């Protein structure tokens, strides 16, 4: 009877490290000399070969696609998932759904699981960087990023300035092409991952919101951000202009408790602020709750703009002004790209945002 082939998880367990560490070592990424030596020794002992992943994909492909999101309870990611599922259903493809919790290690484990199961296509709202995704791409996995790009300082700094929205039927461009069209210089070094993405026009959305608040007389405008909001906070800094009051730029982790704590501290430490832009709907919810707990009246005491339009935004009192991005369309387009990949590399897509004015913003007297 043929013995079971060693998997990347077997190597990780035997070496006493995480799957992501094994992936980094085997793909030539960063690791301490001791860890590298231990992982390579275990891999040799178990006769584990990274190239077996590629053969596994070619010989035992099971069909379907993976979808990784940071938080299944986040309404926006629910909308994105609906779009992916709708497209996959029309193509007769099953979807494997995974929640990363914005943890690169957990994301790497999910990638390894898909590879072992022969699922060679994935749509991801990435938590990790190139070190997480390079091994999967080298193994033959087709990857499309949605909503944001893998964490990389130089990439984040450049990709917050997209051009006008594009679509496949009217000469869609890669993100690099969009940068050039917007008059930006090319990145000084090559992007670590040449992977298509479906993104919203964060820069235009944030810029429009800040201009709207400025038009209402607001000058001390804060930004409340979280994981994956690097492009949005850069857009915010651009929109408010130098010098930026960094005390008004606050970040939370991905949890609701952290978002509430960050909003509460922001309101109490800077009672002079008059408006807040939040980078996502979880942060918007936290800002509403914190304002209520602190007896701040919206919009008389503080105006609120939330990135993401979710159903409960209209049910608030007053209803929230939002920067709407097309979550369902983003998921559908990402699924189209990952299904279309084959003979030619699909191009990235940039989707428009829209400022929807409701009652949570008012003039500063």
Q: In percent, how helical is the residue content?
A: 40-55%
Spatial ordering of strands, largest sheet: 2-1-3-4-5-11
Structural class: alpha/beta
Number of separate strands: 12
Kindly, what is the distance between the CA atoms of the first and last residues, rounded to a whole number of angstroms? Answer: 81 Å
Net shape: elongated
Q: Would you tell me the overall average pLDDT?
A: 83
Q: Number of helical segments?
A: 14
Biggest sheet, in brief?
A: 6 strands, parallel
Regions with little confidence, pLDDT below 50 for 5+ residues: 51-58, 153-191
Rg from alpha-carbon coordinates: 22 Å
What order do the helices and strands follow?
A: HHHHEHEHEHEHHEHEHEHEHEEHEE
Q: Strand fraction band? A: 5-15%
Assembly classification? single chain
Describe the protein.
The structure is a single chain. The protein has helices spanning 8-15, 19-26, 33-45, 51-60, 75-90, 104-117, 130-138, 153-158, 175-181, 202-215, 230-240, 256-269, 281-293, 327-340; strands at 65-69, 95-99, 121-124, 142-146, 197-200, 221-225, 249-251, 275-278, 303-307, 321-324, 349-351, 354-356. Strands 2-1-3-4-5-11 form a six-stranded parallel sheet, with helices on both faces. Mean pLDDT is 83; it is low at 51-58 and 153-191. The radius of gyration is 22 Å and the shape is elongated. Helices cover 43% and strands 14% of the residues. With 365 residues, the chain is an alpha/beta fold. It starts with 7 loop residues before the first helix and ends in a 9-residue tail after the last strand.
């Amino acid at each position: 009877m043929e013995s079971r082939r060693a998997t990347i998880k077997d190597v990780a367990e035997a070496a006493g490290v995480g799957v992501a560490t094994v992936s980094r070592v085997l793909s030539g990424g960063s690791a301490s000399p001791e860890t590298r030596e231990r992982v390579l020794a275990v891999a040799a002992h178990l006769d584990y070969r990274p190239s077996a992943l590629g053969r596994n994909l070619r010989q035992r492909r099971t069909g379907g696609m993976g979808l990784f999101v940071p938080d299944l309870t986040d309404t926006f990611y629910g909308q994105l998932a609906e779009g992916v599922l709708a497209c996959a259903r029309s193509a007769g493809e099953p979807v494997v759904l995974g929640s990363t919790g914005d943890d690169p290690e957990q994301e790497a484990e999910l990638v390894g699981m898909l590879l072992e199961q022969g699922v060679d296509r994935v749509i991801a709202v990435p938590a990790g960087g190139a070190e997480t995704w390079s091994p999967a791409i080298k193994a033959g996995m087709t990857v499309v990023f949605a909503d944001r790009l893998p964490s990389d300082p130089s990439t984040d700094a450049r990709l917050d300035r997209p051009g006008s929205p594009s679509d496949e039927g009217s000469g869609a461009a890669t993100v690099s092409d969009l940068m050039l069209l917007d008059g930006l210089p090319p990145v000084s070094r090559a992007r670590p991952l040449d992977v298509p993405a479906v993104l919203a026009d964060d820069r235009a959305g944030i810029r429009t919101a800040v201009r709207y608040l400025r038009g209402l007389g607001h000058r001390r405008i804060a930004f409340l951000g979280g994981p994956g909001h690097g492009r949005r906070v850069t857009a915010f800094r651009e929109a408010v202009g130098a010098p930026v009051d960094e005390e008004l730029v606050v970040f939370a982790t991905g949890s609701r408790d952290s978002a509430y704590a960050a909003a509460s501290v922001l309101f109490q430490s800077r009672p002079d602020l008059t408006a807040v832009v939040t980078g996502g709907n979880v942060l918007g919810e936290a800002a509403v709750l914190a304002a209520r707990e602190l007896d701040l009246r919206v919009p008389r005491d503080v105006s609120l703009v939330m990135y993401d339009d979710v159903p409960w935004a209209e049910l608030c009192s007053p209803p929230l002004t939002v920067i709407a991005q097309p979550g369902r369309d983003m998921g559908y387009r990402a699924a189209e790209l990952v299904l279309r990949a084959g003979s030619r590399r699909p191009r990235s897509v940039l989707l428009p945002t829209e400022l929807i004015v409701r009652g949570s913003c008012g003039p500063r007297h």
